[in-house]
Amino acid sequence: MASINIPFTFVVSTSESENLQDLLDDEALILKNKSHEIEPYLNGRCIYLVGMMGSGKTTVGKILSQAIDYSFCDSDTLVEQDVGVTTVAELFQIYGEDFFRDKETKALEKLSGVHRYVVSTGGGAVIRDENWTCMGKGISVWLDVPLEELARRIAAVGTKTRPLLVNEQGDAYTKAFRRLSDLFEQRYKAYENASARVSLENIAAKLGYIDVSNITPAMIAIEAIEQIGHIL
């Protein structure tokens, strides 16, 4: 099978995600100001977003990439394009998880050789040491979202596109929460390897919010830029 080719025109379209112009004026202004503060110190290094399924890596990544004038890439999408399937769920069904993990590692190896990309990684990318070697050439950011919020998000859109959830029993929220709890127990030590951590609970406390569901993707992107700034 052919090696993965990174589509260097793979950038965000305004129809696929929130555009900076669509954000609240104060959010867009804060994003731009904070991105200008860190941009000189990034030196073109890629930013890898890690976190559990449903943590918002793709949505936040697209906003973040626009704010810092980077391109955006989803590693799952690269794998889908390489294999010729439309979803990761389809790939799991046909080839299995090990095949997907091998392809995911190859995609991250390819991405480690480029610059100025915000990369949304798969939820399980953190479990392989070789993936951390690839991501170590850039800056990794863990989007840490409470399990209850993750389960709520996934239940709202359904579990059919989540291959690690399709065989769980029960209502959508219950089976999502149960499986997410198991996965988090297996992965949380790996997530802690990230260069920076963006905690929705910390954002909520800072803003005086009771419910993390009120936190917008732009707020998360702002916090990501702040946390990146702390380590540069």
From TrEMBL:
CDD domains: SK (cd00464). It is an enzyme of class 2 (transferase). The keyword Plastid does not apply. Transmembrane segments: none annotated. Its EC number is 2.7.1.71. SUPFAM superfamilies: P-loop containing nucleoside triphosphate hydrolases (SSF52540). Pathway: Metabolic intermediate biosynthesis; chorismate biosynthesis; chorismate from D-erythrose 4-phosphate and phosphoenolpyruvate: step 5/7. Pfam families: SKI. InterPro entries: P-loop_NTPase, Shikimate/glucono_kinase, Shikimate_kinase/TSH1, Shikimate_kinase_CS. It comes from the Eukaryota. PROSITE patterns: SHIKIMATE_KINASE. Keywords: Amino-acid biosynthesis, Aromatic amino acid biosynthesis, ATP-binding, Kinase, Nucleotide-binding, Transferase. It catalyses: shikimate + ATP = 3-phosphoshikimate + ADP + H(+). Catalyzes the specific phosphorylation of the 3-hydroxyl group of shikimic acid using ATP as a cosubstrate. Belongs to the shikimate kinase family. This is shikimate kinase. It comes from Salix suchowensis.
